[in-house]
Design goal:
The complex is a heterodimer of chains A (about 230) and B (about 230). Helices cover about 80% and strands about 0% of the residues of chain A. With about 230 residues, chain A is mainly α. The mean pLDDT of chain B is about 95. The chains are: A mainly alpha (about 230), B mainly alpha (about 230).
Chain lengths: ~230, ~230
């Protein structure tokens, strides 16, 4: 562990970046997934077509390609726009943090689209009819009946989506985000100890995955409390 | 900035030069990964703790860490270890192709073993009881009843994993391999035209994904041929 001395703080800040990317992309992923699911469930043919195109494109393309395209593509577009106003500017890019966050959120959001859609369709018609019979309006049915049933149905798959997100953050190091894998590359250059450095990164990610898995298990336990017999 | 069609026409054949390497990685690690997955799955369902625990730890570690970290550990980390440099395996770890194949195999093996286990656990108990009543011994029941039924149950999820594996082969470009993505990254560095090159490559990947899905659907129909009612 001697080789790691002097690198602990770098790995710590790298882990903070991983956590930040994860949380930001989690929010975006839920938004993309909900929009996609709403479009697929809507009556509009055009919205359905667009949502189908979205899921096909992002599920069939390697993650690294999406990240590279978004980062370099946005940089070239942004530079071209900036040069219209000020020809002096040579290069302008979207920060790797945001390019990468949006990229992985778009990718995992395409999977979440199907999860949310399935959960919405999985709500039992009987529950909804019962709620209507009790005099609830559509909004009340959505808040009190649909959402509580949906999140429970979506949770196992949603947990897997969160694991995909945390693991995809590693790919953002390719476009220069200073997260743990990036730190390991620098540390490898300085110390000549790649094995220890990359094992450390693996351990950090395993820690993140474990926290997510345990949280999902706890939520599942909480979500199924009405299914258990009182003891 | 403009979309240059002639650039696509000149870049596409260059990128397709890498398709052979992409397929080599996909097929080699797909087949080896499936064999590893079968061994891991048998260890997990063996009911013996000294077999099932190591398999569980293996699956937990490889599913909890990013594939990119695994590739870097194999490529940068392993050559640092003397017992690997001295072993007969050194020619594999000296070569980036060998490293990518090893990392992809180890990774996909962990995922696929869980898929196979799901298939085996999904086999209807009644079928096995019927087999027992007919006097089949446990080995025969496993070979003639569990295996074909589990294969059909696991196939849809397995098809998704083959597609993930295809997408993961693109990461081989990070360890200097000139697969399709590797060639595309070199071309983008030369021409600075990320839109044209990355989008056309994304379409190539989507076509391969589509073909894999068709192939899997065909195998699924063949494995499930006894479920179709013939009139």
């Amino acid at each position: 562990m001697d080789v790691l001395s002097g690198w602990w703080d770098d790995f710590f800040w790298g882990s903070v970046v991983v956590a930040q990317v994860f949380l930001a992309s989690l929010v975006l992923m839920v938004i993309f997934g909900l929009i996609g699911a709403a479009a697929k469930l809507s009556g509009s043919r055009i919205a359905q077509k667009i949502a189908n195109g979205y899921t096909i494109v992002f599920r069939g393309t390697p993650e690294i390609l999406v990240i590279l395209l978004l980062y370099f593509g946005s940089a070239i577009t942004l530079t071209a726009i900036a040069q219209l106003f000020n020809p002096e500017i040579k290069f302008l890019d979207v920060p790797p943090f945001w390019a990468g966050t949006i990229a992985i959120a778009l990718i995992v959001g395409s999977y979440a689209t199907e999860t949310f859609r399935g959960a919405f369709l999985g709500v039992k018609p009987g529950s909804i009819e019962a709620a209507h019979a009790l005099g609830m309006n559509t909004l009340q049915v959505f808040i009190y009946v649909r959402v509580p049933e949906m999140w429970r149905l979506a949770l196992p798959a949603f947990g897997n989506h969160m694991l995909s997100l945390i693991k995809d953050t590693a790919l953002i190091s390719i476009i220069g985000l200073n997260e743990t894998l990036f730190v390991a590359k620098q540390a490898m250059g300085a110390t000549g100890e790649p094995f220890v450095m990359y094992i450390t990164v693996g351990a950090i990610y395993l820690g993140f995955s474990t926290v997510i898995t345990l949280s999902v298990m706890a939520l599942e336990h909480f979500g199924s409390r009405h299914m258990r017999a009182e003891t | 900035m403009s979309f240059d069609v002639s650039l696509i026409l000149s870049a596409l054949p260059k990128m397709l030069m890498g398709i052979g390497l992409t397929f080599q990685l996909l097929i080699l690690s797909g087949v080896l990964g499936l064999m590893l997955a079968i061994v891991l799955m048998l260890m997990r369902i063996s009911g013996k703790w000294y077999l099932s625990w190591p398999a569980q730890v293996y699956i937990y570690v490889f599913r909890g860490t990013p594939i990119l970290v695994q590739i870097f550990i194999v490529y940068y980390g392993f050559p640092q270890l003397d017992f690997i440099r001295d072993s007969f395996l050194w020619p594999i770890f000296r070569d980036p192709f060998g490293c990518a194949t090893v990392a992809l195999t180890l990774n996909t093996g962990a995922y696929v073993s869980e898929i196979l286990r799901g298939g085996v656990l999904g086999v209807d108990r009644g079928v096995l009881e019927a087999g027992e009543a007919l006097g089949l011994n446990p080995r025969q029941r496993f070979t003639y009843l569990t295996t074909p039924i589990a294969a059909r149950l696991a196939l849809p999820a397995y098809g998704n994993d083959v597609i993930s594996l295809l997408k993961s082969t693109a990461l081989a470009s990070t360890i200097t391999l000139a697969d399709m993505t590797g060639i595309a990254r070199t071309l983008v560095a030369q021409t600075y035209a990320p839109y044209e090159i990355f989008i056309s490559l994304a379409i190539v990947y989507m076509i391969i994904t589509f073909l894999i899905q068709k192939l899997m659907a065909r195998i699924e129909r063949w494995l499930g041929r006894y479920t179709v009612r013939t009139s």
